[in-house]
Amino acid sequence: MKPTRGKGATNKVSKEALKPVDDRKVGKRKAAIKADKSSKKPAKKGKTAKKDPNKPKRPASAFFVFLEEFRKTFKKENPNVKAVSAVGKAGGEKWKSMSVAEKAPYEAKAAKKKSEYEKLMNAYNKKQESMADDGYVESERSKSEINDDDEVSRLAVPSSEPISKSSEAASPLSYPPVAV
Q1: Alpha-carbon gap, residue 114 to 109, rounded angstroms
Q2: Does any domain span residue 119?
Q3: Cα–Cα distance, 2 to 4 (Å, whole number)
Q4: Which of 123, 124, 132, 178 is most buried (CB neighbours < 10 A)?
Q5: Does residue 83 carry a pLDDT above 80?
Q6: Contacts of 161 (CB under 8 A, 6+ apart)
Q7: Domain holding 106: CATH number?
């Protein structure tokens, strides 16, 4: 009999290739396939906007306000538990079991923090608009980074003037005299 060369033959081969081999686990084979795909495609770097350090931070939700207090009590009751995940799981279970009345004080605190955040954001947005209207665009780098760059550039680029003893005393960042 002649071997078939149609679609049926390729399906049998592909099905056999998909069957796990005794010495390999399915998970390892899947991981190897994923690695092959990633090696073919170059990694894409997403462009993220620079974060403004002056922007107010978002307020904690009611659950996180609760978790702050729960963490303290949990640590006192269970001093031997060091895992952060254990605290989070226990806190989540307790939060789910709490009634609406028990959650109310935490929700009130979260609402208060949210209103303060909204006030700060309004002030921040007004400041950003006024700076944009003035034509002032804030640099991506902080002033300390710019000052650091200035010092480095002064150190890296030697001046064309010979260094005299009077200039050594005036600037501690200048090059020491070199004997030739």
Answers
A1: 9
A2: yes
A3: 6
A4: 124
A5: yes
A6: 167
A7: 1.10.30
- Quote the pLDDT of residue 167: 47
> 34: number of CA atoms within 13 Å, CB side?
6
Contact 58, 118 (CB under 8 A): no
40 SS3 class:
helix
How far apart, in whole angstroms, are the C-alpha atoms of residue 55 and residue 124? 7
Cα–Cα distance measured from residue 38 to residue 108, given in angstroms and rounded to the nearest whole number:
48
**What's the length of the chain?**
180
Per the domain annotation, does 175 fall within a domain? no
For the chain, what is the mean pLDDT?
74
Q: Pick from 98, 24, 23: which is nearest to 63 by CA? A: 98
In Å, what is the CA distance from 154 to each residue of 10, 28, 44, 141, 168?
A: 70, 56, 37, 19, 14
Nearest Cα neighbor of 176 from 164, 63, 72, 38 is 164
d(CA 155, CA 174): 7
